[in-house]
Structure formats: structure tokens, C-alpha cells
């Protein structure tokens, strides 16, 4: 589904934010992406989604190369950024319709999906309001709804649980699982290890731009009797 | 194509939504009145256009006014399109959202250009549209002429947009990733403006002796060719309107080629410039860490200056504001309206004090830096709310920022004006004192306007300055002050110019005291109640 090969990126030509990162995600996999602050999670996700370009390396999604076949590649994923910068003076429904238009979602489909997701997220009453009147969590849920709308095979999220209430957080977890059950894949970064522990098929750990682990929870713990938290701290400890 | 339209639509909805919100925030009726204010600003321009047209019409060459305003519109549009392109292409917030969507780079560029179109069209409507109506009125509204002029007006923004894009983008891709790219952006923009104006000066320096005029007049279409020389399509258009279909065809063809050119270059432009520019954010070395303590007022002043200096749009606007008289002078001298000799003309000697006064005061009359001093902060405004700073200090630092910038500009202008147009030292003193108090008054009024209408929720810096009604209202206050100053002149003109200036200064002091009182009584408190976003 997603294959990234030897991604390298430096913002200032000195320090590498990403160093030869290689990763492959298969159909149906739910991947948690964790690492300390500044490890390179957002950078990786931004490169995969085409917001920034890597100095070196290849991004392939669903068999398409992002560099040479951008439009087709972008049709096969959607993205929820960590700092949403979207049009603010339009209503939520305007924004959803815009996204649906861009991804060619039919009128019947968009109606059904928008109603389903927004009622699950308890956002339906707010869709007619301007986005700049939304709370942080509402905006986050609108972006998630928008990203679910096209039902693209790959779903990429940068710290999606930040700001969600327990109910919405649960809804999101279920939606991610459901997406994978239907054959899609999910890649999301987070600092909430509990979510990763309970939900993900595989865990990718990144530290200082290097992928230091990419495996199932059990393999990462190496059958030691440690929690993911303890393992994580041990692996990323600087001293 | 479909996606381009969707993109344009969502952008228009967003802009319209913001505009409506800004209007509705202050009651329905006042909102409607405010919406009409820009029209008021166009009035002097329209009056000037009528005069220009009439003078051409008197010698039966009314159509030359079309050539003239066609070129004027093109220059105005080109000059305005450069900062607009920089702001909406490189500093707008939707770019990273757009980067993830399956939309071609070309579509993004075209949609963004389409977003600029209305602004430029309005300029064209005021300048060329007015002249067109005057012309049609003279020739009896014939269908053919009406159709051609309509086509000419709607296509008018194409060439400036194409040219603006062609000069801006290579430059921006050069600057992308540089350490001081903001500074480069501003310097580059100023250079571009300089070049555009410079070309105009060179082109219009032809008529300097009577022989040349006689020769020009003796040729067929001599004047037309002379006026239109710097921009040949304006000649084709004029001829097209008068009679020649062939010439109009040329005119349309060049518009179409400009469109095709942009269409084919668009995706390249996106990859080479836009994308590159937006990903190398904040590159550069980390700076030395210091733990020095700074006085709070100085800190606030630095912060306000920083907001201007780190944002190319704000910086450009500020620099332009301060040197408006210089720009106007250059513009006038290249349009042949006046030059240094005109100013030194003995006939103007009795008015010299006023001219010098006018030159020095102009930044604070025409620029309204304080009217956006709160708006400029935008999404960072909450910081001043959260930090333990007295509202008075916060406000004073904003005013100080304006005064500092104007002070620099006005000092330069004062020295230059004094050298070119010497006036008696005592008169100069009166002028300077009056300038100081008028500037204080204006910046206080602007600050009050901004407190009344904070407008913090903007998406790109141009929107913060240009789409902001505050600037219009601020100019309105200048018109009122100008009226009072004229009244002073009218009443005391027999006492001599320096007395008139002193009386204007007293008027400014009086008004300043009143405004200061109102400010302290009402507006400091009102400022404390502005909601950050
Ligand atoms: N715009 C930028 N300009 C310069 N350096 C940057 C930029 N964005 C990120 N970096 C650097 O790249 C590295 C990786 O940052 P990134 O944002 O990818 O981290 P992250 O893993 O998402 O962290 P967090 O958990 O805090 O979100 C950091 O060292 C950061 O300093
Ligand atoms: Mg991050």
C-alpha cells in the first residue's frame, strides 16, 4: 500500500531531520508511528503527503510514485494534519463539499457518509456554522470527517487524538479499525502509547530521524516483561 | 477544469464569508455605509479622469484618453499585482492543504490568479471604465464600440497578471530557501517597482522641444503612437475602437497568447517556485542564546516592529506608505504633470510653505499604519492578552511603532524638501511643530479606529491591509481634517502662510487633546475587551 524508500530530509543542510528512512505498509495494516518530540514524525508524514519534498528517496502509494505521478498518488490517500490550516470563513458543510468535489465523491455517497460520520462525532448540528466558530476538537473532527469522506485506501493522520473527547477518540479508533478491516491502511502518529498498544498491528518507532523499530508489539518488547512505555523509554533514551 | 472552478468557488466563499463577518459585526446599516466607502475613495480619481478626458475631447481627440487610461490601468495593475501575487501565492495559509489534495499544480496557480482578477478588474473599471463611458457618451453608445470596450475591460487584467507572474516567480524561486528571504522579497519588490516606473520614465521622455511636437502632430496617428509607445496593445485597442477590426484582432490575439503562456507555464511555476518556497521554512542557523533582560516597553516595541519587518507584505506597505510623496512625485513627473521645475516655479512661491508642509506631512496623512497596528498581530494577538502587560503599555508601544517609522520617513522628507525648496528657518520650525502634532493626532485616531474594528482573523497579509475597511475609514478622517485645515486657510490666509500653518498646528493640538481625552476615557478600556482569536 505504502512504500517509502531511503527518505532523507534536511531543513538546514546540516542536521538531518530524516536519515534514510525505509518503511512498507501493507493492505489492511494499522500502523502507529511514535517517537520523541522532534524525531521526524511530522516531517515523514509531510513528505508522504506531498507538502514538502525529500532531498532523497522514493514514496510509492498503491503502486504510484509520488514524484512522477502526483495526482494519482494523492487520490489514494487523505491526510489530517496536526495544525489544521484550512479555509475558516466558510461553513463546515462547505468545506466537506469542497473535499468531496475534489475527490469526486458522488452526491449520494457524500450525503450518506457526511451524515454517518458527523453524527458519530456529534458534529451534525455544527455543520452549518462557520469554521472559525468551532472549538479545537470540533475543527479536528471536521478534518477527520473530511479525510474519511473520499474513502481513500490509505488514511494518514498526525496526532489525531489531540483535543478529542473520550467519546470522539473512541469513535476515531473504531473508524480506523473498520477502515483496515475493509482492506484499507492507516498510518498515524501519536504520543498516546496506550492507543498504540491496544490498536495497532505494527508499531514504527523513530528517533532522531532514524527508524529504530518497525514490528509488532510483541516483537518490539522482545518477550520481556516490560510495558511499551518502558521499552520506548529504554530505546529512545539519549544518555 | 472542474476542479479549478471548485477551488475558485471555495476561495470566493471564504473571502466573501470573511467580508460579511467583518461587516455584520457592527450592525447592518453601518455595515452597508462602510461598504460604500471605497467608492468615495474612487471619486477623486473619477474627477481627474473626467478632466483628462475633457482636455482630449476639446481637441477632438477624445479617443486618446482611452489610450492614456488603458496604459495607466496596465501600469497600476502591474504594480499592484506584484505584491498581490507574492502574498496570495507564497504567504497564504491554504498551501499545505492544497499540496495534499489531488489537484494539479497548474489548477492551483490558475485558481489563485483567478482570485486576483476581481481586484485588478475593479482598478480597470475605475480607470478605463470611466473613460470608456465618457467616450461612449460622446459617440452615442454604438453597439460595436460598446462590445469592443466591454471586451477590452474584462480582458484588461490578463496581461498585467501574466507579466506580474512572469517577473515575480523566477525571482521568488531564486529567493526560496535563502536565509534572509523576507528581506530579499521586499528589496526585490521595490526593485521591480523601480524598474517598471523607470521604463515608463524613459518611454515618456520624448516631448522636450516644440519641433518634436510639431513633427509628431504632422504625422498620422502621431500623438496616438507617442502616447501608446510604451505599450503597443493600447494603440491597437484604440485603433480597434475607432475603426479597424484588424487592430482589435491583434489586441485580442495578444490577450489570448498571454493566457496560453500562463496556462503552459503554470505547472512549472508551481513546482519550481511555490512548492520550493513553502517547504524550506525557517532554514538557517540557530542563533546565539542570550539571557539578557529587556525593558518591557522596549520589548513590545521590538515585537511590533518585528511583526512588520518579518512580513514582506507589511514591510513593503510600510515603506511605500512612508515614501508616498516621493512615489507620487516620480509618477507625476513621468506622466508629465510636474517636475522639479514646476515646484520651483516663482508663481508657486507664495505657496511654498504649504508645499513643504504637504510633503513632510504626507506619510501620516496617506499612511494609516496605526489603523492596522492591532490587526497586523492577527493570530498572535492572544500573546499580549496572556502576558502580564498593562493595556496602556501595549497601546503605547503600538503608537510608538507608528511614530518611529513615520519619524524616520518624515525626517528624510523634511531634509530633502528643505534642500530642494528652501524656506525661512522660523517657517520651517512652525511647519515641523504642526507636522508633529498632526502626526500624533492621526496616529491616535487610527488607533481608535483599530480598537473599534480589530479584524484579527485574516488569512493572508494582503487581506489584513488591503481588504481592511479601517484604512478607508482612516482616510475619511483625513478628509475631515483636511476640510478643517482648508477652513483655517480660508479664514486666515491674509495673515500669511506661516500663520496659517501655526493655526493648523493649534487646531491639531486642540483636536489631539480632545481625542486623547476620549481615548483615555473610553478606548483603553475598550481595547481591554477585544477578543483574541
Ligand atoms: N520548518 C522547519 N524548519 C526547520 N527545521 C524543522 C522544521 N520542521 C521540523 N524541523 C526539524 O526537523 C526535526 C523533526 O521535526 P518533526 O516536526 O518531524 O518532529 P515530530 O516527530 O513530528 O515531533 P513532535 O512529536 O514534537 O510533533 C526537528 O529536529 C525539527 O527541529
Ligand atoms: Mg509532529
Give a short synopsis of this structure.
By secondary structure, chain A is an alpha/beta fold.
Model description:
The complex is a heterodimer of chains A (239) and B (533). With 239 residues, chain A is α/β, with parallel strands linked by helices. Chain A folds into two domains: 1-76 and 153-167 and 180-239, Rossmann fold, CATH 3.40.50; 91-151, no CATH class. Helices cover 37% and strands 24% of the residues of chain A. Chain A has nine helices and ten strands. In chain A, the strands form two sheets. Chain A has a six-stranded mixed β-sheet with strand order 6-7-8-3-9-10, sandwiched between helices. Chain A has a four-stranded antiparallel β-sheet with strand order 2-1-4-5. In chain A, strand 4 and strand 5 form a beta hairpin. The longest helix of chain A has 16 residues, at 166-181. Chain A starts with a strand and ends with a helix. The model of chain A has no long low-confidence stretch (mean pLDDT 89). Chain B is mainly alpha-helical. Chain B has two domains: 43-280, no CATH class; 296-528, no CATH class. Chain B has 23 helices and no strands. Chain B has helices at 2-24, 28-58, 62-90, 95-100, 105-139, 143-155, 158-175, 181-204, 210-218, 222-228, 232-242, 245-279, 296-309, 312-322, 324-334, 340-344, 352-366, 381-386, 391-420, 425-452, 461-466, 469-492, 497-528. In chain B, helix 2 packs across helix 5 and helix 17 (352-366) packs parallel to helix 20. The mean pLDDT of chain B is 79. Chains A and B meet through helix 2 and helix 3 of A and helix 1, helix 4 and helix 12 of B. Magnesium ion binds at residues 41-42, 82, 158 of chain A.
Per the principal axes of the C-alpha atoms, what is the gross shape of chain A? globular
Domain count of chain A: the total is 2
Global Rg of chain A: 18 Å
Shape of chain B: globular
What's the architecture of the largest domain in chain A in CATH terms?
A: 3-Layer(aba) Sandwich
Which blocks of ≥5 consecutive residues of chain A have pLDDT under 50? none
CATH homologous superfamily heading of the largest domain in chain A? P-loop containing nucleotide triphosphate hydrolases
Overall domain count of chain B: 2
Average pLDDT of chain B works out at: 79
Structural class by SSE content of chain B: mainly alpha
How large a portion of the residues of chain A is in β-strands, by DSSP E?
A: 15-25%
Amino acid at each position: 500500500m505504502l512504500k517509502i524508500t531511503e527518505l532523507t530530509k534536511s531543513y538546514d543542510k546540516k542536521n538531518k531531520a530524516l536519515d534514510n528512512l525505509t518503511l512498507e505498509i501493507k493492505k489492511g495494516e494499522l500502523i502507529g508511528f511514535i517517537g520523541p518530540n522532534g524525531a521526524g514524525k511530522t516531517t515523514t508524514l509531510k513528505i508522504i503527503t506531498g507538502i514538502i519534498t525529500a532531498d532523497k528517496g522514493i514514496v510509492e502509494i498503491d503502486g504510484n510514485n509520488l514524484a512522477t505521478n502526483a495526482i494519482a498518488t494523492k487520490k489514494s490517500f487523505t491526510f489530517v494534519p496536526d495544525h489544521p490550516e484550512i479555509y475558516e470563513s466558510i461553513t463546515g458543510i462547505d468545506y466537506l463539499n469542497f473535499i468531496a468535489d475534489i475527490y469526486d465523491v458522488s452526491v449520494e455517497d457524500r450525503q450518506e457518509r457526511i451524515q454517518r460520520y458527523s453524527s458519530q462525532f456529534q458534529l451534525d448540528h455544527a455543520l452549518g456554522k462557520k469554521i472559525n466558530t468551532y472549538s479545537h476538537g470540533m475543527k479536528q473532527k471536521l478534518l477527520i470527517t473530511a479525510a474519511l469522506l473520499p474513502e481513500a485506501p490509505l488514511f494518514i493522520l498526525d496526532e489525531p487524538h489531540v483535543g478529542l473527547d473520550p467519546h470522539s477518540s473512541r469513535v476515531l479508533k473504531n473508524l480506523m479499525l473498520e477502515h483496515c478491516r475493509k482492506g484499507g491502511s492507516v498510518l498515524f502518529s501519536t504520543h498516546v502509547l496506550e492507543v498504540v498498544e491496544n490498536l495497532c498491528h505494527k508499531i514504527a518507532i523513530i528517533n532522531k530521524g532514524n527508524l529504530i523499530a518497525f514490528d509488532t508489539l510483541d516483537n518490539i518488547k522482545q518477550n520481556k516483561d516490560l510495558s511499551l512505555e518502558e521499552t520506548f523509554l529504554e530505546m529512545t533514551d539519549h544518555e | 477544469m472542474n476542479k479549478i472552478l471548485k477551488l475558485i468557488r471555495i476561495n470566493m466563499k471564504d473571502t466573501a464569508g470573511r467580508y460579511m463577518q467583518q461587516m455584520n459585526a457592527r450592525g447592518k446599516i453601518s455595515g452597508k455605509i462602510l461598504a460604500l466607502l471605497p467608492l468615495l475613495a474612487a471619486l477623486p480619481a473619477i474627477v481627474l479622469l473626467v478632466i483628462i478626458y475633457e482636455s482630449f475631447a476639446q481637441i477632438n481627440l477624445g479617443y486618446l484618453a482611452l489610450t492614456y487610461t488603458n496604459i495607466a490601468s496596465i501600469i497600476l495593475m502591474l504594480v499592484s499585482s506584484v505584491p498581490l501575487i507574492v502574498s496570495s501565492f507564497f504567504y497564504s495559509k491554504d498551501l499545505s492543504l492544497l499540496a495534499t489534495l489531488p489537484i494539479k499544480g497548474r489548477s492551483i496557480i490558475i485558481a489563485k490568479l483567478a482570485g486576483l482578477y476581481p481586484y485588478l478588474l475593479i482598478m480597470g473599471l475605475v480607470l478605463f471604465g470611466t473613460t470608456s463611458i465618457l467616450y461612449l457618451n460622446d459617440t452615442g453608445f454604438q453597439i460595436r464600440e460598446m462590445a469592443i470596450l466591454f471586451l477590452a475591460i474584462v480582458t484588461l487584467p490578463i496581461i498585467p497578471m501574466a507579466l506580474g507572474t512572469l517577473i515575480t516567480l523566477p525571482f521568488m524561486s531564486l529567493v526560496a530557501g535563502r536565509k534572509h528571504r523576507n528581506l530579499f522579497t521586499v528589496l526585490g519588490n521595490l526593485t521591480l517597482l523601480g524598474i517598471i516606473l523607470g521604463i515608463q520614465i524613459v518611454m515618456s521622455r520624448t516631448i522636450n522641444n516644440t519641433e518634436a511636437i510639431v513633427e509628431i502632430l504632422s504625422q498620422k496617428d502621431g500623438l496616438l503612437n507617442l502616447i501608446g509607445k510604451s505599450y503597443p496593445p493600447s494603440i491597437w485597442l484604440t485603433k480597434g475602437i475607432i475603426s479597424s477590426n484588424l487592430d482589435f484582432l491583434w489586441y485580442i490575439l495578444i490577450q489570448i497568447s498571454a493566457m496560453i503562456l500562463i496556462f503552459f507555464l503554470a505547472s512549472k511555476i508551481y513546482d519550481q517556485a511555490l512548492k520550493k518556497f513553502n517547504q524550506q521554512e525557517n532554514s538557517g542557523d540557530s542563533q546565539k542564546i542570550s539571557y539578557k533582560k529587556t525593558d518591557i516597553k522596549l520589548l513590545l516595541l521590538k515585537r511590533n516592529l518585528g511583526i512588520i519587518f518579518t512580513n514582506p507584505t507589511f514591510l513593503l506597505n510600510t515603506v511605500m506608505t512612508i515614501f508616498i510623496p516621493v512615489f507620487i512625485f516620480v509618477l507625476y513627473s513621468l506622466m508629465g504633470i510636474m517636475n522639479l521645475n514646476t515646484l520651483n516655479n516663482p508663481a508657486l512661491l507664495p505657496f511654498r510653505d504649504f508645499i513643504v508642509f504637504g510633503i513632510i506631512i504626507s506619510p501620516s496623512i496617506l499612511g494609516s499604519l496605526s489603523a492596522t497596528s492591532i490587526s497586523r498581530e492577527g493570530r498572535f494577538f492572544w500573546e499580549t492578552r496572556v502576558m502580564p502587560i498593562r493595556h496602556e503599555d501595549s497601546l503605547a508601544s503600538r503608537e510608538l511603532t507608528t511614530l518611529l517609522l513615520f519619524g524616520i520617513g518624515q525626517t528624510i522628507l523634511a531634509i530633502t524638501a528643505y534642500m530642494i525648496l528652501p524656506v525661512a528657518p522660523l517657517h520651517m520650525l512652525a511647519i515641523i511643530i504642526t507636522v508633529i502634532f498632526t502626526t500624533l493626532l492621526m496616529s491616535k485616531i487610527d488607533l481608535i479606529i483599530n480598537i473599534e474594528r480589530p479584524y484579527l482573523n485574516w488569512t493572508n497579509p494582503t487581506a489584513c491591509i488591503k481588504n481592511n475597511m479601517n484604512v478607508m475609514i482612516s482616510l475619511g478622517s483625513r478628509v475631515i481634517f483636511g476640510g478643517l485645515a482648508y477652513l483655517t486657510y480660508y479664514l486666515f490666509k491674509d495673515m500669511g502662510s506661516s500663520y496659517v500653518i501655526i493655526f493648523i498646528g493649534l487646531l491639531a493640538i486642540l483636536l489631539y487633546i480632545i481625542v486623547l481625552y476620549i481615548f483615555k476615557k473610553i478606548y483603553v478600556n475598550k481595547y481591554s475587551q477585544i477578543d483574541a482569536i
